[in-house]
Amino acid sequence: MFSQTAWAESSSTLEDILSFSRGNVPVNEAKLMTINEFGMRVGAQAGMISRAKEIVARIENRSADLDRIFAFQPLISSDGFLPPVIAQSSQKFETLNSAQRAEFAGVTYKIITPARFVRVAPTWRDYLFAGISEKRLSVDSLPQAIKPSTTEEKSEWEKSVRNGWDVGIKQADQIFIENMGRLKRDYMGMLRYLSMSDAKMIKRPVVSKTAESVKITNNEIAIGVGADEISMPAIMEKDQGAWGSAD
């Protein structure tokens, strides 16, 4: 589960990482390559975490609005499954036969995620914070063997850290954009399913229930053992005569 505690305790600011140096001693090309690799890696991690903290703070300021807008709990069916996700796309206009024929269509609906049972409804946090690292990063955890010693090493370290930092910031921004896209797609897709179901344009999943029984092993007795199973997924209604109007 998402937590900011580790971040709050982290000492890895950009300046902390850049100052990872200890004077002047001999250097070699292999070490310069290693310094570059580590500098890029830790710079990217720290840059991503730094940007993620900013993103999280900005999002949390709108948590009440997001709780209201993306409320998944009311979407769960009485059988306990989360609705399928229906994607909607517009078709492109296309000309054929030297523009003597034009083909087009209005809208296409497609089931991209089937219904699934859930014990707890997802929240917008599960989407928006996915893939944002919580790993604690500190210069104290860096190998002493790659600590910059000469002017060349220090210059290489600072350059690679700054480059990595910029990469990490871009990664965090991209992850957030992708997460927000998935959140909107899935939530709107579930609402679209409910609307199409009301209009009888899609058939609801069929849930089969196994009668409760008693399961006994040498070490355990379980009473009231049963199972719910989606025996038939949601499918589009092919009979257009059965379509109606959604409420």
Please provide a written account of the structure.
With 247 residues, the protein is α+β, with helices and mostly antiparallel strands. The chain has one domain (5-203). It has helices at 5-9, 14-18, 29-60, 63-69, 124-128, 151-198, and strands spanning 81-82, 85-90, 94-96, 101-103, 107-113, 116-117, 202-203, 206-216, 221-232, 235-236. The chain has a two-stranded antiparallel sheet. Strands 2-5 form a two-stranded antiparallel sheet. Strand 3 and strand 4 (101-103) form a beta hairpin. Helix 3 runs parallel beside helix 6. The chain is extended, with a radius of gyration of 27 Å. The relative contact order is 0.20. The mean pLDDT is 84.
Helix fraction, binned, reads: 40-55%
Unreliable residue stretches: none
State the separation between the terminal residues, measured CA to CA: 38 Å
Task: Tell me the domain tally.
Answer: 1
Number of helices: 6
Anisotropy-based shape: extended
**Main pleated-sheet profile:** 2 strands, antiparallel
β-strand amount: 15-25%
DSSP strand tally: 10
Q: Give the SSE string.
A: HHHHEEEEEEHHEEEE
**Coarse structural class:** alpha+beta
Sheet with the most strands: spatial strand order: 1-6
The radius of gyration is: 27 Å
**Overall mean pLDDT score?**
84
